[in-house]
Amino acid sequence: MTLDLLFDLDGTLVDTVYVTSDVLNSMLKERGSHRRILPEEARPLVTLGGEAMIANLFGDDCLDPIADVTEYRRLCAERVTEESSLFPGVRQGIEKLADLGMKMAVCSNKPQNLVEKIMTDLRFDRYMTAMVGAKPDLPRKPNPKLLEIALQEMNGQLQTCWFIGDGETDQEASATLGIPFIFAAYGYGTPIPELPVTVSCPNFTSITSFLEKKVR
């Protein structure tokens, strides 16, 4: 038996909060602001999406959320994703799941070009049969459309599909699609009590162990 695994990106595979705060601080410095954003301040806001996150963190320094998020994403695209940005156990876990023959894909609300860049920087593109990010013509999670596209591109089946994520939007999308949801409790979000969670895992190593038992 094999499984079709869909992974969220930020807060599940990659801890982007340090790059996020660094890029935002460079933007603030460029416009002459004395405001500084700590990673701990950015962490609970990452799941809100770029515009809402920047509006909350910039406060009065946010003059145009759309222009600010465009600049933020441009600067992020210039950064190389470092190995240190992976959550502990992710590389070993992904490699083990690949060795077990599991099909894997990334499904993120991050723009498509950034999803592909991060996966390529980390050399994870070799393991992912699909890399699906946000596009102007597609609804974002919690709408399950991105998950459906990823599942189609990887030739997966709903009956063997699991979604692994850390955000409320991940949980909602999984529930709408009717697939099991593994909550990455080490990430940025908080689960919605009214919606199902198959298992909550404190680290990626425990996610790997749980999935490994499913195919043994």
From TrEMBL:
<dbReference type="InterPro" id="IPR050155">
    <property type="entry name" value="HAD-like_hydrolase_sf"/>
</dbReference>
<protein>
    <recommendedName>
        <fullName>phosphoglycolate phosphatase</fullName>
        <ecNumber>3.1.3.18</ecNumber>
    </recommendedName>
</protein>
<dbReference type="GO" id="GO:0005829">
    <property type="term" value="C:cytosol"/>
</dbReference>
<dbReference type="InterPro" id="IPR036412">
    <property type="entry name" value="HAD-like_sf"/>
</dbReference>
<dbReference type="Pfam" id="PF13419">
    <property type="entry name" value="HAD_2"/>
</dbReference>
<dbReference type="InterPro" id="IPR023198">
    <property type="entry name" value="PGP-like_dom2"/>
</dbReference>
<dbReference type="InterPro" id="IPR041492">
    <property type="entry name" value="HAD_2"/>
</dbReference>
<keyword id="KW-0378">Hydrolase</keyword>
<dbReference type="GO" id="GO:0008967">
    <property type="term" value="F:phosphoglycolate phosphatase activity"/>
</dbReference>
<comment type="pathway">
    <text>Organic acid metabolism; glycolate biosynthesis; glycolate from 2-phosphoglycolate: step 1/1.</text>
</comment>
<comment type="similarity">
    <text>Belongs to the HAD-like hydrolase superfamily. CbbY/CbbZ/Gph/YieH family.</text>
</comment>
<dbReference type="InterPro" id="IPR023214">
    <property type="entry name" value="HAD_sf"/>
</dbReference>
<dbReference type="GO" id="GO:0006281">
    <property type="term" value="P:DNA repair"/>
</dbReference>
